[in-house]
Amino acid sequence: DQLIHLERMGAEVLPFEDKEKKELYDLRVMLESFAFSRIKNLNHEQIIKEMRKQLEMMKVAVQFEDAEAFTEHDMKFHEVTIMA
Questions:
Q1: Exposure string over 68-83, b if 16+ CB within 10 A, otherwise e
Q2: Which residues are registered as beta bridge partners of 11?
Q3: pLDDT above 80: residue 27
Q4: pLDDT digits (tens, 9 = 90+) for 35-64
Q5: pTM over 0.70
Q6: Is 38 exposed, middle or buried (0-12, 13-18, 19+ CB in 10 A)?
Q7: Which DSSP symbol is given to 65?
Q8: 3-state secondary structure string, 12-56?
């Protein structure tokens, strides 16, 4: 996807501009909207509660500039949708 440039002794991460970020977010919204439309006959309140919990944990991770924790809770956020 041309996100990195391989070097002889490693790799360089290429710039990720605002245009690419917007495209990624647009794709994410489209996929998540589709996933939510497929969730039926489940306890939506419990799903929403867990997603809000993970979202709050991501906000805390941002405040403390903890990229690893942010990524962990972002993945858990999406796992809630997958499990539903």
A1: eebeebeeebbebbee
A2: 6
A3: yes
A4: 878 877 667 888 889 999 999 999 999 999
A5: no
A6: exposed
A7: T
A8: EECCCCHHHHHHHHHHHHHHHHHHHHCCCCCCHHHHHHHHHHHHH
